[in-house]
DNA sequence: GTCTCTGTGAACTGCTTGTGAAACCAAGTG
DNA sequence: CACTTGGTTTCACAAGCAGTTCACAGAGAC
């Protein structure tokens, strides 16, 4: 995803933190010129302009963005309650606004709605580990760019393992956590599913899942710290 | 100025007072039927739907408003912070939202911006995905240039799927989002409608809707980056 | 009244999944 | 080194389940 343009520079800590947590990449710029310099190849995916500290600079940047022809970036304005009346004459400079100080969840919801409105989808929820990518929304998986055709249980098992990289799970644990019922007697079940997973991962990536003899299985490398 | 439609009925005192102070005329309605009865000659100028007390009723009213052809009213949703995540799949039901409890000035600013925006016709009227085109104004659909003769439910289902490409939906989710009621027992209903859709899409494009075994259905291909 | 749309039950089909058995392997042990 | 033992991988197969398809009936529109 292309980054968001943030004003001012440096970005307010609360804003930076909220964006990082939500998984939006961003770059801060303090002026239209700086924004031009920092602009990525494919343009910005949008902009969040903080008007609460430097209102004049903020509106100047909005104007600069709006002057460009295409592609059009959605602009989200951050403003204090006292600035609300100032917005009246500047409706054309932004697409949505959020009162500062803001709640991270509200910011996230506004970004999502803004992107939806302007025709860009929301970000998919991804689980990534090395070459492996799981898209939780579309139930699809890929390793090294190659899509994997996994069955339901295979996907669930891989998802569980990949969300706990490095950790070793016994067969009993896997049965109860992934399958969801108590352990009866089918420990072979886990083995076979692991085998099918390794087969589909391909020779090259089969070692993503390692066997810990007498214990169980581990996804990815072991963790010595953390 | 035409009045605003308010939900629920009676209107929350804070909302009524804020609108009166700001000079917006309004009428409250507790259901889609009541809204129809109260509707003025020239239609509503917009709607403010409070989802903080009766979420189901609120979304039902939104859906009813969105189903009407023209003229199109901008919808402002009032929601609590806890409801923010629920909005994700309902982006199409509103044009802006305001957290409750709200500050009158923020409400006023959002209304002003909303009217400004919609006065310029920034509403999406076409949904496109690959060979598929849905015209939301005329309720027509076409795939690969060939017009599709869809029934009402088929169109609604396809519209919902096509506005969330790549994402997998369970039958329960589809029932509640497209049909609008809670899941009773008719999961087959979804299957059959999917089947009819695929039949009408034609052999060539039937694969636009894919089955995700043990999960549900997905429209279009996954989104890996964007 | 006639027609289309819509929802539901039921048969059918194919794939997923679990399981036992056999082959295989690594590491002790005499 | 040969043998044993405990664990893991691999294979083949059968049962069950999820999805598809069909047929039909009620509801609602015209």
Report on the structure:
The structure is a homodimer of 226-residue chains. The first copy, chain A, has helices at 13-22, 32-38, 55-67, 84-87, 104-117, 152-162, 171-179, 187-201; strands spanning 4-7, 26-28, 46-50, 75-79, 96-99, 126-129, 132-135, 140-143, 146-148, 168-170, 209-212, 216-219. Chain A has 226 residues and is an alpha/beta fold. The first copy, chain A, folds into 2 domains: 4-117, Rossmann fold (3-Layer(aba) Sandwich); 126-219, Winged helix-like DNA-binding domain superfamily/Winged helix DNA-binding domain (Arc Repressor Mutant, subunit A), CATH 1.10.10.10. In chain A, the strands form 3 sheets. In chain A, strands 2-1-3-4-5 form a 5-stranded parallel sheet, with helices on both faces. The first copy, chain A, has a 4-stranded antiparallel sheet with strand order 6-7-8-9, covered by helices on one side. In chain A, helix 1 packs across helix 5 (104-117), helix 6 packs across helix 7 and helix 6 (152-162) packs across helix 8. Chain A is elongated. Chain A starts with a strand and ends in a 7-residue tail after the last strand. The model of chain A has no long low-confidence stretch (mean pLDDT 87). Chain A binds chain B through residues 1, 81, 84-85, 87-88, 91-92, 95-97, 99, 103, 105-106, 108-109, 112-113, 116-117, 119-124, 133, 135, 137-140, 142, 151-152, and chain B through 81, 84-85, 87-88, 91-92, 95-97, 99, 103, 105-106, 108-109, 112-113, 116-117, 124, 164-168, 212-215, 218, 222-226. Chain A binds a DNA duplex (30 and 30 nucleotides) through residues 151-154, 185-186, 188-189, 191-195, 211, 213-214.
């Amino acid at each position: 995803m292309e980054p968001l343009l943030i004003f001012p520079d440096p970005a307010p800590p609360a804003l930076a933190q909220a964006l990082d947590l939500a998984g939006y990449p961003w770059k801060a710029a303090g002026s239209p010129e700086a924004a031009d310099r920092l602009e990525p190849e494919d343009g910005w995916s949008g902009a969040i302009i903080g008007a609460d500290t430097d209102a004049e600079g903020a509106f100047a940047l909005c104007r600069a963005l709006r002057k460009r022809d295409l592609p059009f970036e959605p602009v989200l304005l951050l403003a204090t309650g006292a600035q609300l009346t100032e917005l009246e004459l500047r409706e054309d400079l932004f697409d949505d606004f959020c009162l500062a100080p803001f709640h991270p969840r509200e910011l996230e919801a506004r970004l999502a709605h803004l992107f939806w409105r302007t025709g860009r989808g929301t970000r998919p929820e991804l689980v990534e580990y090395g070459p492996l990518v799981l898209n939780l929304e579309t139930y699809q998986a890929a390793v090294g760019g190659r899509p994997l055709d996994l069955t339901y249980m295979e996907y669930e098992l891989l998802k569980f393992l990949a969300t706990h990289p490095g950790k070793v799970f016994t067969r009993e644990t896997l049965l109860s956590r992934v399958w969801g019922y108590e352990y009866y007697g089918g420990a072979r079940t886990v083995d076979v599913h692991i085998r099918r997973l390794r087969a589909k991962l391909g020779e090259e990536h089969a070692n993503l899942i390692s066997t810990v003899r007498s214990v169980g299985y581990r996804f990815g490398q072991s963790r010595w710290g953390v």
